[in-house]
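Entry 12.
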Amino acid sequence: MIESIYIARHGFRLNWVTTNWESPTGLPKDAPLTAFGVAQARELANYFSSLDEDQRPTLIFSSPYYRCLQTSQPSAQALGLPIYVEHGISEWYSPVVPNTGLHPRPASASALKAYISEIDSDAWSSIYYPTRKGENVDQIHERAHSVLSDLISEVESRFPNHKRVLLVSHAATVIALARDLAGDRELPLRVGCCTLSEFSKKVGGAGSGSWEVKKLAEAEFLTGGVQRDWGFEDIQIADGKVIEDPGIPGSESEVDEPVGSMLRATSSVASNL
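Predicted 3D structure (tokens):
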């Protein structure tokens, strides 16, 4: 039974300080961390190592984007844990401009293991895939709710002895996840690079809002403090809608699948047999 959920944002990104960078994975928009961002990730790992053993995460789930995997890696090494790749906690993209293609989608865990050896691609397969067509603000919150519902259920079923989970994700996704756990979709929250939030399960609680907030985007363990913080108030709005983003050139003919919960899709197929 999960008792605690930690949520961290990735470290400082290289594309924020230079336009001269290459994606290690070859995926568009998949920037690595700066040296400073790597140092932040190590400080996060040192923080977890400083906790009593009964407070440390025992499962690590990361977005498949390289910056999140890089952020997860020092904690995985320090705690002696594998990294489980979960597409459900991937980056948030606003809706694509019509007829410009789709947003990028990172590779599978087995392919990403070539870059991050701590990835375990056998014990976990992604249970949710966001649409590559992008999401509005309501949809990223709905995704967070669905992912948490499925993830908690699946972890408690498959890993019943694990009580503390770490999720490593992106600013918008971190905020949506935190709001769902707290049961407050309007919760004011800005998250900096490598900041950490912590939630504890309420006695008898179930579902959204059944978690007590212990930390919200805290950075006391980071030498540089809060860096490059972001909140939903920073998004661009026009006519009451999020500004659309162009898709990736050359992706116009690609198919947007799979999408949504893989657990519910499997359940639906089984029920029709």
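Annotation: The CA atoms of residues 127 and 176 lie 18 Å apart. The first helix runs from residue 35 to 50.
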